[in-house]
Amino acid sequence: MQLPYKVATLIYGFNKAGDVLLLERALEPNKGLWSPFGGKLHVAEGESPHACAIREAREEAGLDLAPSDLHLVGVVSESGYQGTAHWLMFLFEVLPPLRELPPAHREGRFAFVPLARLPELPLPSTDREQIWPLFFAHRGGFFAAHGACRDDGAAEWSVLESRPSHEPDAPGPSPGHEAAGPHAVIDRVSDEFFMGEALRQAVRAHAADEVPVGCVITRGNRVIARASNQVEVLQDATAHAEMLAISQAQQVVGDWRLGQCTLYVTKEPCPMCAGAIVHARLQRVVFGAHDPKGGAAGGAMNLLQFPTLNHRCAITPGVREPECRHLLRSFFKEQRARKQQGRVEPCETTPPVTDEPTRNGDGPRPD
Ligand SMILES: [Zn+2]
Q1: Is 242 a catalytic residue?
Q2: Which of 118, 215, 296, 352 could form a disulfide with 271 if both were Cys (CB 3.0 to 4.6 A apart)?
């Protein structure tokens, strides 16, 4: 079909609680629907997708971003949309957490929406059915998808490229590189920021069919170790993200004592990891999702602050918990779906998988 090609960027920003910044559209064609902000690329000027995203973020949300603040999560093309145009869309995530809600403007009003509330919101149907699931499965990674619109208005979608994980040392905002100026709305040294780095590791685990738990260890606002859960790939019950990260950090520091370090993990540590954390004398532990059944940082027990042990850690719980929990839930949901489709051999000794983190740490299986 001979139609013009229109190019646009969509920008996904999140606050420190992990809520996504959405715009309730005030204008047709999407009036009343919620979507990320963004806009058309200045084709005639030869604008790059990143330059377009930076311009749109400035114009629509008052954000002052650098190219390194953006991650290109996906490229979506849609041919013959409504019989009027082909569309090419670049989906960017803003890496640093947003600090302020932008004011309303001509396109609509902004809100930070908890991820758990997304299903209740009026969303464009393509967003609901195709874009959001792809986006969440590829945060920190990359995908390319194409929708071929049929005459009846529906589209047939195909995923052309899918890299759910993030490279371990992929460029992110460098710690300590603070946004300057009175209108700085982003940060790079907060617990929320480093939990974002741990979340990237959890996404890697998810991509590798591991229970999605990720961990980073920092010293002086620098990440010195990153690891994701690797129990399945290593066939090692001790290969929890925290255990792997602690070993890495000890190598980097050149000492088994990590007294100046903070450990960030997306799920409350299990007793094994809490034990290792105490032995390594980490100063502080920051975790995302609570684990009331098996957590050893106050959930089921508190080994990190056990009175008779010779070291106790400071604990900061619940940082970016909705995202951490969402990742775990979607993983277990997929596992259940696979089981129902018979792709995973049912095993009588495998307990029912719950939505919640299990009592034995990172795995869905006992012990
Ligand atoms: Zn563990």
Answers
A1: yes
A2: 296
